[in-house]
Structures are given as structure tokens and as C-alpha cells.
Amino acid sequence: MRIDVVTIFPEYLEPLNVSLVGKARARGLLDVRVHDLRRWTYDRHHTVDDTPYGGGPGMVMKPEPWGEALDEILGTATSPAGTTPAAGTTPAPMLVVPTPGGRPFDQELAVELSGAPWLVFTPARYEGIDRRVIDEYADRLDVREVSIGDYVLAGGEAPVLVMVEAVARLLPGVLGNAESHQDDSFAAGPMSHLLEGPVYTKPPQWRDRGIPEVLLSGHHGRIARWRRDQALARTAANRPDLIARCDPSSLDAHDRAELERLGWREGSDGRFWPTGQHVEE
Ligand SMILES: C[S@@+](CC[C@H](N)C(=O)[O-])C[C@H]1O[C@@H](n2cnc3c(N)ncnc32)[C@H](O)[C@@H]1O
């Protein structure tokens, strides 16, 4: 996968050289290119911002440097992501625009992005990028405005680090054990609306704390069931909104009994609700 990041703080992306992403780059699984937006400015101060039309506080990123940067990076890429490029051209990237006003980033979107051959990220500063830039490229690329959470950061570089790491660990060959993300919180399938439960390693006794007996039993069925119960309990306690969204067909009889034991009740639609909160539609 190729990833381009355009930023006024290239040094902020240095963590992409370490750990899992750094190793994936070293092994040629990821081709990450970080560009300084100021390369596409021509005045003495390398200006990238100006005052907002309509007035108000803060500055807005000027469209010209972004347009020139993106045109140069896109080069010969001509067809929207997912469509077949004309002979002799490169398939166009997906353009990922970090913004608090975007679609929430989640595991499902990480999986989708991990299937793209090329991603271009445009982390902004100030009050964001002049809207015309997003509209201009939405005409020729698959553009995604994405938020990493309901809070406002000073810039989009930290969101890019978050998204690149979530995407990179899903790429074939990046994780040592290809199956290790299948049991993760939010993983597609049985875990899609559940949080992973607690994990333990050696020694079997630490201070005055042991580990749950079942994990020493060697009984794979009982261990899997225990892990599932722990996942249900943690999700019910910390993210009840996820339990309410669980697809009824993903819950077996034991899951249902466990949720009832945790104080949840099954509605007529098969979904679970905290006791006393279900409103029949
Ligand atoms: C100070 S913020 C601009 C916030 C903008 N005025 C608003 O209220 O939506 C500057 C930049 O940081 C990035 N950013 C801040 N919070 C973010 C979030 N929760 N998710 C993704 N990007 C974010 C975006 O690139 C944004 O353009």
C-alpha cells in the first residue's frame, strides 16, 4: 500500500518510522511519503493560511498550495479508487481528510481503507482547509472526511497517525500472527460490537494475584466461552451502546443467558436493552 501525507509539520509524522508501521515500511509492505505543504508556496514567508471570508476568529488554509501539492502527488492517477484505470495510468488514491466534521473513524472504516492500494491524507491546521479543495478533488477521487472522535485537536497529524496505524496492522503480512486481529475488539464477525476481555501472561502468581483457573485448564471450548462472557461483561459495563447494536443473529443461547444475567432484556426485535429501558417500536 502507498500512503502520502501532506502537512506543514512533516516531523510530526516521525513515529511512522518506528514499531509496527516502521517495520512494515522497512519490509516494503508500506510505502509512506510525507510531504511538506510549504514546498508549494512561493512567498518569502511560505504562507499557507489567510483570514476567513465572512470574518470570525482563526485562519483558513489557502487552496493554492493544497491544489498544487495534490496535483503533483496524484500525477497520472486518473480514475476514481475502485474503478479500472485506463491503460498506462495509475489507479487514483482515496483522499482522506481528517476533520472533526467527518464520519467517525471506526474498525469498519479501517478495514475499508486497508483494502485501498493508495491513500492520501491531508491533515490541516488552523480552522481547516478552504472548502473548494475538498470539492475540487471529490469530483475525481473517492474523498472521505473522517473524524477520530468528538473533540477538537490543534491539527490533523495525530489523527493521521491513528488512522495509519489502525490500517497498517490489517495489511497482510504486517502482524506476526495473521489471526491476532481476528479476536480484537470490533473485529468483523462475532466481535464486531464487542470489546475484548482481560488478558494474562506469566507468571501465574503476581503479588497476591493469580489468574482465572479456566485459562490453565487447556480446555479450548471452556476458555473460548469464558473469553466471550468477559467480552460481553466488559462491553455491557463500558459500552452499553454497542450491546444494543449487536446483531441478534451473532448472539447464541449462552450469550443471551449471559446478557440476561448482566441485567439486559431481549426485546421483540431480538436486540438487547438494559432492564427497564426497552421501548417497543
Ligand atoms: C483546530 S482543528 C479545526 C476545527 C474546526 N474549526 C471545527 O470546528 O471543526 C484543525 C484541524 O485539526 C484536525 N482535527 C482536529 N480535530 C480532529 C478530529 N477530531 N478528527 C480528525 N481531525 C481533527 C483537522 O485536520 C482540522 O482541520
UniProtKB/TrEMBL annotation:
Subcellular location per the Swiss-Prot or TrEMBL entry: Cytoplasm
Reactions listed under catalytic activity: guanosine(37) in tRNA + S-adenosyl-L-methionine = N(1)-methylguanosine(37) in tRNA + S-adenosyl-L-homocysteine + H(+)
GO-annotated biological processes: tRNA N1-guanine methylation
The protein's Enzyme Commission number: 2.1.1.228
Superkingdom assignment: Bacteria
One Pfam family matching this protein: tRNA_m1G_MT
Domain tRNA methyltransferase TRMD/TRM10-type: 1-244
Positions that bind S-adenosyl-L-methionine: I148, G149, D150, Y151, V152, L153
SUPFAM superfamilies on file: alpha/beta knot (SSF75217)
Cellular-component GO terms for this entry: cytosol
Similarity comment text for this entry: Belongs to the RNA methyltransferase TrmD family.
PANTHER family registered for this protein in UniProt: TRNA (GUANINE-N(1)-)-METHYLTRANSFERASE
Function: Specifically methylates guanosine-37 in various tRNAs.
The protein, known as: tRNA (guanine-N(1)-)-methyltransferase
Organism name: Streptomyces abyssalis
Taxonomic classification: Bacteria, Bacillati, Actinomycetota, Actinomycetes, Kitasatosporales
